[in-house]
Amino acid sequence: MATFVDRVVLHASGGDGGNGCASIHREKFKPLAGPDGGTGGRGGSVIVEVDPQVTTLLEFHHSPHWHATSGSQGMGNWRQGASGADLVLGVPDGTVVKTKDGHVLADLVGVGTQYVVAPGGHGGLGNFSLASPRRIAPGFALLGEPGEECDVVLELKTIADVALIGFPSAGKSSLIAAISAARPKIADYPFTTLIPNLGVVQAGASRFTVADVPGLIPGASEGKGLGLEFLRHIERCSVLVHVIDCATLEPDRDPLSDLDQIEAELAKYGGDVGIEGGRVPLTERLRMVVLNKIDVPDARELADLVRPDLEARGLEVFEISAVSHEGLRPLTFALAQLVERFRRETVEAPPTRTVLRPKAVDDAGFTVTRQEASGKLYFQILGTKPERWVRQTQFSNDEAVGYLADRLARMGVEEALFAKGAVAGDEVVIGAGDNAVIFDWEPTMLTGSELLGGPRGTDLRLENHSRPTRVDKRKEYKDRMDAKAEARAELWTERTAGVWTDDDPDGAPAAGAPRADKGPAASPDATGTPQGS
């Protein structure tokens, strides 16, 4: 069962944004008080952060799939949806985030350093946020944007001051156990370390860390053995210590050839490629040679024999025995001096500056390209805003589709399509990949919006917001009274003219007709008012 993992593939997906709400506010005496749909909440993001309590990527080896929570949808009465919580994943200090093809996305060094792996989606706007003087009552809302899905590679590069390198069974684990409190596996039979080990060494007032990486063999830079898997752990070390076995029983090995082969593998392995703030190449790091196992008589003689040749190359040489601890104290103080020298000569990286990159004058925010596939012509539109607008559009709602057409037209997409030679009926693709939306283009003037009876989103019941003034009420009352008086006078005129006295054939007056024998009581005066009344 794996206990140490320094490279994993992380499958992360951000949370989806909540959908917006389409709602009309209702209360007593205000049955249609305008839109009140709230905006959906934003989806949570997946973030990797350096955690000092984490020393391995083992957790992501067993659970590589991580998904942030989604935002909730908006609600009526202007209530906004809750945003999803960000998912923060702790990683060791020195973790590098890369794409699958090796492109470096972030170098996480320092406690608290973060990188957003998969951002969450935006929440959809409710119809209250979509309302405008021309669109008083939108009957639609925007959908929440899906969260991004991303597959990244996490590589752990151990942060140490000194790296112990050499062939398997050269005594590296014994050495780190002798000079520090680290307790790696040590045995009296040949084997190689399977995982890197770290130890802290105190030499006088200086303190530094030492890393013991698995043994290297010829061809390690090409993937042979375990060297390629762990060479990344020496990229951040300031001092490289060649631990050479002077008591090896293999006939084709000697200290000089071992040193040459290890140096050749380091030269082939670049390291730190693509990481910002570049470091000193491995071939230019401070070096030291340690001739180990001099407690064996033949090994001591071999060490005395090759030492002049190594010093002639400009290398500092120490003869030690990790078993008897001979020569360890001078070695640790020499290592402390090299580490302090590297720290003094290393220029500290300046603080990150805030760089403002304003939008270019001619940057339209999208691109329109003319494409042809299988003899079929189409136009592809790429851009952050158009692609997000398409993802947030509910195509089952004609008003929402019209709103999308208006937004694209205002952005200048139609002019760009005309400039590329597009005509009505041509195929247009917005986006790329499987999430692209394909439709037959019709310019806005031909979409039939003029047949809707008015501008999109309007409601005749909500357009008249004026209230009559007192003067208007008095005038309306006077006009109504004058109309009643005129109607009453017209009735009496018709009665006087005999319009209502339609006698039957027998000569009897019609029912309800005025009688002529009643005298003046039944005849009106000159003003039209009945006499005697």
Give an account of the 3D structure.
The chain has 533 residues and is α/β, with parallel strands linked by helices. It has helices spanning 58-62, 127-130, 172-179, 227-230, 255-268, 297-312, 328-345, 384-391, 398-411, 413-419, 470-496, and strands at 7-13, 46-50, 65-67, 87-91, 95-98, 104-108, 114-118, 149-156, 162-165, 197-203, 206-212, 239-245, 286-292, 317-319, 367-373, 376-382, 427-430, 437-440. The strands form four sheets. A six-stranded mixed beta sheet has the order 10-11-9-12-13-14, with helices on both faces. Strands 3-1-8-5-6 form a five-stranded mixed beta sheet. It is elongated, with a radius of gyration of 44 Å. 31% of the residues are buried. Mean pLDDT is 80; it is low at 446-453 and 510-533.
